Amino acid sequence: MNVKKFTGKFFAVCFAAALTAAAFSACKDKKTEPDQPADDPTAQTGDFDMQPATEAQILEVVSFLPDPVATVDGEAIPRQEIIDDLVSQEVPIEIFHSIGEARLREAMNRQIEAMVKDRLMLKMAADAGFKPSAEFIKQEMKTEFDELPKEEQEEIEASLKEHGLTLEEHMEKVSQDEEIQKAATLSKFVHTTFLDKAKKEVSEDDVKKFYEDHLEVLTRPEGVTVAHILAQVDDPSSDEQYAAAKVKIDAIYDELVKDPSQFGKIASEKSDCPSKADEGKLPAFDKDGMMLEGSGTMDQTFATAAFEIEKEGQITKPVKTQFGYHIIKLLERTPEEVTPLEKVKESITKHLAEEKAQTELEKALDDAIEKRVKYNDFAPAKDVEED
């Protein structure tokens, strides 16, 4: 375990972050994400040769924002916080202009909602006794460190030493980051207040029903593990390359017909696929070419040919695909198998608890917004003013 991974465990608990993000209904991440909506000015920076908008320019285009934009428990969120946030994102002013005022208003509304919910969540956490502090971070980090295996502790300490730091110095440095303090506080609050309670509410019947309702996705399809030898073509449109590859693969096939036991050796020496390093062996896949472990797909023609092999150890005649010609050897065929309930019981319980916790968190947040938040109205749109 490296230092970065170790540090990350104390302020970015994945589930808490996911719950918070879902409840917020808007992304606060200042990095541009490819799946952000088109009407979000931060989503359209692209590869433009433009300068980031200045504070004065942003203030002009979002002049419709009230000041303050909202209050939480009577505490104002000034318009300047929105301005500062937009300035930090370094979005060119042309992007703001290109999306139009209506969409810009929608984007600002989402950003204000996210900011309000961020502020409100911290207040809810404080009400429950969870307040950001350096001491809290150090305590959480020490607890987690003490629970690690001794070899991982030694690895972390050695890595820190290479950077001229002791464990205590590292914890002290991390604990001073206010954003880390907030994130860790919210994580602890969500886990203690919502997730722990939800875990107790998930029954055996809940788990069994979920299992039975999702047997299809819990079923591992029939799969094959094969090795292959490839005579590659670089240009699938080149008849000349395919002709040369066919000559090569036919010669290899003739060798294998004489002595099939040499498949691994020949694959290592003559295949054009990187799998030659493992005698041509490929990861297991199903009849549609989908990998059974991890991600990735096989060429469908290749997968079909592999599944047509009847017995383990047999090889195909040369098979033509977009990559060239292959000779495929069946190493193993595994039948369709339903994952036993006991094997997935823990993960199903966790999933159901997270769903319950998310629902309760969103409900609590909505209730708190109704009682503790006041949004101020935007100024009328320019076309409305002209009427």
Topology:
Layout (H helix, E strand, L loop, with lengths): L2 H6 L5 H11 L30 H7 L8 E3 L2 E3 L1 H10 L4 H35 L6 H14 L2 H13 L4 H9 L2 H24 L2 H10 L5 E2 L2 E10 L6 H20 L4 H8 L29 H8 L11 E3 L2 E11 L2 E2 L2 H32 E3 L6 H5 L1
Helix pairs in contact: 2-9, 2-14, 5-14, 6-8, 9-14, 10-14
Secondary structure class reads mainly alpha
| Mean of all residue-level pLDDT scores | 87
Q: State the shape.
A: elongated
> How many discrete structural domains?
2
Total count of helical runs of at least 4 residues: 15
Which residue ranges are poorly predicted, with pLDDT under 50 across at least 5 consecutive positions?
A: 3-39, 41-48
Residue fraction in strands: 5-15%
Distance between the termini: 64 Å
The main sheet comes to: 3 strands, antiparallel
> Can you list the strand order of the major beta sheet?
2-1-8
What is the radius of gyration? 29 Å
Helix content: 40-55%
Oligomer: single chain
Task: Provide a brief overview of the structure.
This protein is mainly alpha-helical and 387 residues long. The chain has 2 domains: 1-218 and 339-387, no CATH class; 220-337, Chitinase A, domain 3 (Roll).
Report on the structure:
There is one protein chain. With 387 residues, the protein is mainly alpha-helical. It folds into 2 domains: 1-218 and 339-387, no CATH class; 220-337, Chitinase A, domain 3 (Roll), CATH 3.10.50.40. Helices cover 55% and strands 10% of the residues. It is built from 15 helices and 8 strands. The chain has helices spanning 3-8, 14-24, 55-61, 79-88, 93-127, 134-147, 150-162, 167-175, 178-201, 204-213, 239-258, 263-270, 300-307, 341-372, 382-386; strands at 70-72, 75-77, 219-220, 223-232, 319-321, 324-334, 337-338, 373-375. The protein has a 3-stranded antiparallel beta sheet with strand order 2-1-8. Strands 4-6-5 form a 3-stranded antiparallel beta sheet. A two-stranded antiparallel sheet has the order 3-7. α9 (178-201) packs across α14 (341-372). The longest helix is centred in the N-terminal third of the chain and has 35 residues, at 93-127. It is elongated, with a radius of gyration of 29 Å. The termini are far apart. 24% of the residues are buried. The model is unreliable at 3-39 and 41-48 (pLDDT under 50).
